[in-house]
Amino acid sequence: MPATVEVRRAADRAVTTTPWLNSRHSFSFGDHYDPDNTHHGLLLVNNDDRVGPDAGFDTHPHRDMEIVTWVLRGELTHRDSAGNHGVIYPGLAQRMSAGSGILHSEKNGSATEPVHFVQMWVVPDEAAIPPSYQQHEIGGDLSGGGLVTVASGLPGRDAAIALHNRNAALHAARLRPGDAVGLPPAPYLHLFVARGRVTLEGVGDLDEGDAVRFTDADGRRVTAGEPSELLVWEMHAKLGD
Predict the structure, then answer these.
(1) Range of the domain at 20
(2) What pTM, to 2 d.p., does this model score?
(3) Is position 82 within any domain?
(4) Where along this sequence does the record place binding of Fe cation (predicted)?
(5) When you count CB atoms within 10 A of the terminal residue's CB, does the N or C end of the chain come out lower?
(6) H or E element: which one contains 142?
(7) How many domains are contained in the chain?
(8) What is the pLDDT averaged over residues 70-99?
(9) pLDDT (tens digit, 9 = 90+) per residue, 169-203?
(10) pLDDT tier at 150, thresholds 50, 70, 90
(11) Binding site annotation covers 104?
(12) Which CATH number belongs to the domain containing residue 151 in this structure?
């Protein structure tokens, strides 16, 4: 299969809006189904969510999914039926494994400020594992400007939190203007510009909310034109492998 680089612009995403939620979907989600846009590699969901004050997602079920939430602004309160409770804020790596089944809620506890976060889903290697929750502070690591591994199931790779998928890892970077990072080479790669504006080698400018889907990614460099934050999924298999 030849290497490919596909740019997906922010404005082309499907959008779910309610009085308290603005959710932009990189892939098919909920009522927004496109048979040609269901996943890339192992990544099924990349939702860019803004939740208003004193609002959020009431208790609802999940099963057999690795769910990683990355907060960009504000705070999000997580509670689940396994007794886990955490407040997720910028710089905190967090993962919930739904496993054999779990109920959880996600709420903005602020009475005045919205919360902005990206939620990402990948499938686990095995179905019906015990549900679990993990979080770890990595804000200090991000201050260096390089790629930091947020979550990984790749053998031999250190990460802040573990994924129950041996072919996937999530990296993040906070870049100052002029900072540059090299993307990891991988059979499948998903780059999401969570905030800011960057230039991708060989492609050009990418704005906030833009994404790039690579096959046989070759380690291209990304350079920030303004303060920016990147989320990068490195994947060594695709769904169905």
Answers:
(1) 4-235
(2) 0.97
(3) yes
(4) 60, 62, 104, 106
(5) N
(6) helix 139-142
(7) 1
(8) 96
(9) 999 999 999 999 999 999 999 999 999 999 999 99
(10) very high
(11) yes
(12) 2.60.120.10
